[in-house]
């Protein structure tokens, strides 16, 4: 459900183990070439979901909530459709967000920390997690994968650097966390295989750096000017509310459960590894300045 970039990266592993179906709005030849059976439907149109009833033993759910409101009717409709014949899947992995924790003041955050989402976007994810945990109490082995900033060679915020968007002064900066899209895809497959019941996992790499340092690393690697530093008040006057929301939360995620229980070995354990891989994939030598 939600066959976007991360789910597609997981397909090579999933298709070796499972017969894979994908819910799509329009048929995609690329999915067919990977052996995926496509079902036309839309989580915003409940009547289009009838074929999902009793279909799956396992579900990878990466469809986001709607862009407004505090709930997630898409997840509610999905669970209702899956259970229509009285038979829910026995495994489900859901890609959530670490935004469910809200601002933690730079503290180290494990999965046992209560959710305290401050943004509407985060509250919608909390609502989705509650719906899925309720399904978990009915026998579905639910694994919730809380992902921070997802990046890859084709998912880097270089345009933001080129625009000259400011970042916060070091004294006002926030801690940020990251995961390479390939590692998140591997975590999805691992959760369907080894995830524990009604269990949340911080799916992040081993980096914990300030947001400004992340953008400085990218700028240096790709030969771009470093972003200007500014006070929070100055940044507020120049950036969109969405970008500002990411600058209002600070946390350092703990990923021990990811490694211990899902037994995931990160291909890109730090953002430095991921940036080096991005440069290599583009045939670009790293900048030394």
Task: Please identify the top-level CATH class.
Answer: Alpha Beta
Mean pLDDT: 94
Order of helices and strands: HEHEEHEEHEEHEEEHEEHEHHEHH
Helix share, percent: 25-40%
| Total helical elements | 11
Roughly what fraction of the amino acids lie in strands?
A: 15-25%
Number of domains: 1
* Rg result: 20 Å
The CATH homologous superfamily is called NAD(P)-binding Rossmann-like Domain
**Sheet of most strands:** 4 strands, parallel
- Give the neighbour order of strands across the main sheet: 3-4-6-11
**Euclidean distance between termini CA atoms:** 44 Å
How many beta-strand runs? Answer: 14
What are the segments in which pLDDT stays under 50 over at least 5 consecutive residues?
A: none
CATH architecture: 3-Layer(aba) Sandwich
Report the structural category. alpha/beta
| CATH fold-type name | Rossmann fold
- Shape, principal axes of CA atoms: globular
Task: Please sum up the structure shown.
This protein has 289 residues and is α/β, with parallel strands linked by helices. It is built from eleven helices and 14 strands.
